[in-house]
Amino acid sequence: MKKLGLIAATAVMSVSVTGTAMASATLDAVKERGYVQCGVTTGVPGYSNPDDKGNWKGMDVDVCRGVAAATLGDADKVKYIPLNAKERFTALQSGEIDMLSRVTTWTLTRDSSLGLNFAGVTYYDGQGFMINKNLGVKSALELDGASLCIQSGTTTELNAADYFRANKMQFEPVVFDTADQTVKGFEAGRCDVLTSDQSQLYALRIKLAKPDSAMVLPEIISKEPLGPVVRQGDDGWFNIVKWSLFAMINAEEMGLTSGNIDSKMKNSSPALDRFVGKEGIKGSGLGLSDDWAYQIVKQVGSYGEAFDRNLGMGSPLKIERGLNALWNKGGLQYAPPIR
Amino acid sequence: MQNANKSPSSRVPEQKTRFWHDPAKRALAFQILLVLVVVGFVGMIVQNTLNNLESRGITTGFDFLSQQAGFGITQTLIEYTESSSYGTTFVVGLLNTILVSVLGIIVATALGFLMGVARLSNNWLVAKVASAFVEVFRNIPLLLQIFFWYFAVLQALPSPRKSIELLDTFYLNVRGFYMPQPVPQEGFGLVWLALVIALIVSYLVIRWNAKRQDETGQRFPAYWTASGLIVGLPLLAFLVSGAPLEWDHPVLKGFNFRGGMTILPELAALWVALSIYTAAFIAEIVRSGIEAVSKGQTEAASALGLSQGKVLRLVVIPQAVRVIIPPLTSQYLNLIKNSSLATAIGYPDLVSVFAGTTLNQTGQAIEVIFMTMLVYLTLSLLVSAFMNWFNSRMALVER
Ligand SMILES: N[C@@H](CCC(=O)N[C@@H](CS)C(=O)NCC(=O)O)C(=O)O
């Protein structure tokens, strides 16, 4: 009798365990199609930019690759769709892309009224100003009356207006549709200042004909948490994108890299066993194969690796980890545990 | 109906025709049915869209129009600050669209007529230059022309500190063309009054002259008189009231010129590109209009001893205009719609400001695009209506 009860209980349990995987229409569509459609920028070095062979590279690109590795077992199965700032949300809402990974700031309006969900923060940024060195300006507070090159459809447009108004200064907004046009306007002297998220200023600076002629001012005038975005209403897919990013961050915290994960797996530890899908809930909660997190780290790498090769010291941008260091190294990057 | 020739008494209980046997009523019924189906269908689509938007968590409605916009716009014809509403951004964008369209239509018409007439010139060089103009500008995509004027020509101008100056009052640099702005002082009202009087008197003189010419055949230089009045009278008033006008001069302060009036390079590039592109088409329309007037007309007029200029002005143009106006109207409509390419170079027109930034900041794509389409539709209908009215006036002078 007892035994029977136990069997029944296990049966119910196992049903409910498999039952936790949310059915995800997007996941089904991705599997059937064989690749993830990921919205990226039209070209910002370090975030998403095609290299000279036409392969997309960058921090935002690596998030797309992570999702492809987790869902399809192959990080290369991504189709990149370049979008300017104005096009990005419509592309996501209308289903043209499965996810948006394009230096997009998480704000209340976007999260609550566009039918979108932000799946986390890949980079904690803030808005800054880039200026021609020979103007001799040292602080943003000296910018009264300046012309600002801004990209249309961004939080940048709003922050700039707020900042100048709060400091009782005037400015002339010169608004362009793409990063390239904005850079061109800045180079031609149409504006004195190029303003955007500070990390992207470093990125756009290396696009200038003479990068040394421009400098980034010290002021940061806003909070710009940038992260991947999905459509509302597909919680299963939302979880997948969210946990793909968390897996990368957790991997860094656990000291895993694409190079060492195989050797580390030889000495099992409870946390590592759960991470690589040997123990615990494995892939069933997300509706993925058990080694989803292993595939992300093996094929794409940890958050730290991705940061270093795209934005950090291993890249031309040489951006410090700063706020984007792990929480136990003085930064803000913190991911919930995989268990 | 067959009963019509029977006795009057039988008319009342007449054998009833079923309404579907009566062609007029049947047609009416079908029309009502069709309208109901169309209305129902549209209603269904609207309802369906609203439901879908709601189930996807996308905000709908027009409430956003009264929310604070919070972004800056370079060129505003009405008072606008960052704390104005999204509704105001709509008006600002609309006025900027109208501004560049009106400026474009004026220059395109003038240049187009000039080139069209020049193509028919007996002077070989003039005719060839005009046809080269038409062929070049008609065949290069408009967007490329806009980029050419903006990036290749205007962005090659010097920085504000190295501006090209003219007479110490006009400045040209990569940020625009700066000029003094007239600021009317107390007493300037008299000048406006004088202008209104001059306009009324001129109108009366021109009408009197036309009537007199009809009756007696005598002519009076009415147009010269009118021009004289319109310039002279306000000028006189201006001097009498002690020249109550001051000029606000642009001065270089910090990064930019301040004060005065500015033509932004975005406006200039768009204006030039739209005018030249459309002028190339108008030139062809004008040429074909003039060629449509039969040679006999010109010869007869010359035989009467009219000078070349008068032949053109009194005989050819009035007849050509009737052929020209309908296709000219579509060129005007094209120009208005093409002005939405503004967004490519950041001129703050309706599409760039409202269907661009406002749409993006609020996320209310359907409402914003609906309003924008409605604007272009309304502008086009207004222009068509005006041109039709003008055309019917031209057509009626036939005697
Ligand atoms: N984080 C801001 C700004 C993002 C943004 O669009 N930045 C520009 C930098 S100039 C960019 O990446 N443009 C690239 C493109 O349009 O392809 C937002 O979400 O609104």
UniProtKB/TrEMBL annotation, chain A:
Classification via InterPro entries: Bact_solute-bind_prot3, Solute-binding_3/MltF_N
Solute-binding protein family 3/N-terminal domain location, by residue? 35-264
Give the record's keywords alphabetically.
Signal, Transport
- Which BP terms in the Gene Ontology apply to this protein? amino acid transport
Q: Which CDD domains match?
A: PBP2_BztA (cd13692)
Region forming the signal peptide: 1-23
Record's Pfam families? SBP_bac_3
| Signal listed as a keyword | yes
- Similarity annotation: Belongs to the bacterial solute-binding protein 3 family.
Q: What is this protein called?
A: Amino acid ABC transporter substrate-binding protein
TrEMBL record, chain B:
Membrane-protein topology: Multi-pass membrane protein
> Could you tell me which PROSITE patterns the record lists for this protein?
ABC_TM1
Q: Which InterPro entries match?
A: AA_ABC_transptr_permease_3TM (IPR010065), ArtM/GltK/GlnP/TcyL/YhdX-like (IPR043429), MetI-like (IPR000515), MetI-like_sf (IPR035906)
Chief location bin: membrane
Q: Identify the residues that the record assigns to the ABC transmembrane type-1 domain, covering every copy.
A: 94-387
GO MF annotations, alphabetized: transmembrane transporter activity
For this protein, the record's Pfam families field holds:
BPD_transp_1
Q: Where does the UniProt annotation locate this protein?
A: Cell inner membrane; Cell membrane
The entry's family comment says: Belongs to the binding-protein-dependent transport system permease family. HisMQ subfamily.
Name the chain's protein. Amino acid ABC transporter permease
Q: Which organism is it from?
A: Oceanospirillum sediminis
